[in-house]
Each structure stands twice: as structure tokens, then as C-alpha cells.
Amino acid sequence: MRSELPHPGARPTTEQPPDPPRVAWRRQMRARVLEEAWQLASEAGWDRVRVADLAQRAEVSRPSIYAEFGDRAGIGTALVHRETERFLLGVAEVLADHRDDVAAALEAGVDHALAEAARNPFIRAVVTAARGGTDALLPFLTSRPEPVFSQAWRLVAAWLDEVVPGVSKDRRNDAADIVVRLAVSHMLLPGPDPGEASVRVARVACAILGTACGGE
User: Fold this and answer.
1) Considering 19, 35, 120, 191, which has the largest number of Cβ atoms within 10 A of its Cβ?
2) What percent of the chain has pLDDT over 90?
3) What is the mean pLDDT of residues 137-156?
4) How many Å apart are CA 44 and CA 30, to the nearest integer?
């Protein structure tokens, strides 16, 4: 299931009518299964997540889980999409709070991303697996049609489109690309001084953007 992140600065939509009972139950069941999958993956790693355990913990039948997600890989994909959306919504809020200073916004955004990667046990489990050579969850992070990297890139690129419209599109896209790649790199392999990571990322992005970052 694919979900779209709101465009930075988008206003909340009007309240929707309540779902029919069957749709509401399915939505709740899906949320319970994903939450239990998150808990199990955070505690023991994705390799230990079993559909039978999820069914018992979420108090739903295995056929219901298979009907909703298709298979275990479908659960992993849905879970990664859910966590990615939550993660990027947090980054979007930080960027929106610093619209008047591009460098400060990028530093704050990268700081938030790195702190969340260290705090969130699910993200930490994925990062730890990558460092240790176990990649059970990693395929979900690059699965089509919506690679996680692309979602992050689109978020940063859309934000740059709004705050530095005078900079060429190519430069904005290049800056978004380097911000995401460097941030992910620091998540997977932190440097000797993690506190300086966001400063370095912002400095490189500002160099690409040219004169867009005031105070540089």
C-alpha cells in the first residue's frame, strides 16, 4: 500500500466522514498487525518476525493477515512505508520551522534525522543489521515502486523549490540529492564527531546552491 507525504506547507484537509464498519475494522486490524511487527522487529530483528506470532499478538487470524498484506514480505514493505512516512513527516516539520535560514534548516533537519535514527528502535534495528552484514530488512528500503530514498529526496527537493526558487532547478535537485545521501551515510556509518555531521551536510548543500544560504 502506498501513501503520499503531504507537500511541505500543505494545509490539513477537511474532516472526512467515518469509515463503514468493515473498512474501520480492516484499518484497525492493519494498524495492530503493523504495530506488533514493529515491536517484534525492534526487539529481535526482522528475521524473528513470524506471521503466526503477529496473528496471536494482534488477536487476528492468519488468513486475515494474508488477505491484507499478501505475505510476510508485504508486511515488511507496509511497515517500512509506515515508518518512512512518520520519519519524513518529522523532518518536514523541522524544515518548515526554519524556512528563513536554509543552512540552519538543513542542519536542524539532518540533526533530527540522525537523532531519530538513533532513538527509534526499528530504524536502529535496520541500521544495525546493515552494519553487521544482515540485510533481511534492507530490500524493503529500496523496493519499488517507491524507494525510501526517493521519498526523502522529493521532500527535500520540494522544500528547496519553495525556499530558494531563484536557484536553478538542477542545483536544487543536486543539493537535495547530496543532503539525503550524506544523511543516510552518517546513519549507516557515523563519523568521529557526530555533532558536526549536520554542519558538514549543510555546508556542502549550500556550496551547491551557491548564494542561497545567507550568512555563509
Assistant:
1) 120
2) 45
3) 70
4) 21
